[in-house]
């Protein structure tokens, strides 16, 4: 059976006016000569794709805040590859084509130090670039050889995959929270509650990765969720404040 994913991600579905493919507009792009190759670092890429994706649900605690999507599981899995995804490249030219193609998205961009040295000048100033993370083994070397020329656009430089995943997860959670604020300002309560629920899920994942500020962030997100929650509720979240004690 063929599914028209465009219709699922761009047209408001019939359930509760939820358009889950349009509540946020972010994607993640990773340029690395090793990680970008199919068949290499697959476990690492799967971990990142799973942990940063708001449509994944990793445990029962996250399921408590998940908005009901009423989607066929097969369609949901296909949709995960269509929205809010991570795309990896090893070829700079193909990566640049992709970035230019997705000019209407906000891109969280990751690259290695060696590739970033020559690639950042090609994407500097592009409005679709939300942030740039440099993942490298020798931060000091890249700082002293080229990175100081891009201090205005480099968000962070990290040398361990756990630190990279934590930073990316937190930053995407904050971006989704901000999207929730925008929906709330326009009285779009379904969009707001969905974004706040997604931000809660990613913040819970950041907590498991060792984030020490997650308790305060979760308290804020839970309050926003409850303030935005439409009549009848979406999912219970009261227990979370107790769980974070």
3D structure, described in words:
The chain has 245 residues and is α/β, with parallel strands linked by helices. The chain has one domain (5-243). It has helices spanning 5-10, 42-52, 60-65, 73-80, 92-101, 113-123, 139-145, 161-185, 189-208, 214-228, 238-243, and strands at 26-31, 86-89, 106-112, 129-135, 156-158. Strands 2-1-3-4-5 form a 5-stranded parallel sheet, with helices on both faces. Helix 6 links the parallel strand 3 and strand 4. The radius of gyration is 18 Å and the shape is globular. The chain starts with a helix and ends with a helix. Residues 1-17 and 234-245 have low confidence and may be disordered.
Count of DSSP H/I helices: 11
Q: Element order, helices and strands?
A: HEHHHEHEHEHEHHHH
Distance between the termini: 48 Å
Question: What is the general shape?
Answer: globular
Strand content: 5-15%
Domain module count: 1
Low-confidence stretches: 1-17, 234-245
Overall SS class: alpha/beta
Helix content: 40-55%
Strand count, sense and barrel status of the largest sheet are: 5 strands, parallel
Total number of beta strands: 5
Kindly provide the radius of gyration, computed on alpha-carbon positions and rounded to a whole number of angstroms.
Answer: 18 Å
Question: On the 0-100 scale, what is the average pLDDT?
Answer: 89
Spatial ordering of strands, largest sheet: 2-1-3-4-5
């Amino acid at each position: 059976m063929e599914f028209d994913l465009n219709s699922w991600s761009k047209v408001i579905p019939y359930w509760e006016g939820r358009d889950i493919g349009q509540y946020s507009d972010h994607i993640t792009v990773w340029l690395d000569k090793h990680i970008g190759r199919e068949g290499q670092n697959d476990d690492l890429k799967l971990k990142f794709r799973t942990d940063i994706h708001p449509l994944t649900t990793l445990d029962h605690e996250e399921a408590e805040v998940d908005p009901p999507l009423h989607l066929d599981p097969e369609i949901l899995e296909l949709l995960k590859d269509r929205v809010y995804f991570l795309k990896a490249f090893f070829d700079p030219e193909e990566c640049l084509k992709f970035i230019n193609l997705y000019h209407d998205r906000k891109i969280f961009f990751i690259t290695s130090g060696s590739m970033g040295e020559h690639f950042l000048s090609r994407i500097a100033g592009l409005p679709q670039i939300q942030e740039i993370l440099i993942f490298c083994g020798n931060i000091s070397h890249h700082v002293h050889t080229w990175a100081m020329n891009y201090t205005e656009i480099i968000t962070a430089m990290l040398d361990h995959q756990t630190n990279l995943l934590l930073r990316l997860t937190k930053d995407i959670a904050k971006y989704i929270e901000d999207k929730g604020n925008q929906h709330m300002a326009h009285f779009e309560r379904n969009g707001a509650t969905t974004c706040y629920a997604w931000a809660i899920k990613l913040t819970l994942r950041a907590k498991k990765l060792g984030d020490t500020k997650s308790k305060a962030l979760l308290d804020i997100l839970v309050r926003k969720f409850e303030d935005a929650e439409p009549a009848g509720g979406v999912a219970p979240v009261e227990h979370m404040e107790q769980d974070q004690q």
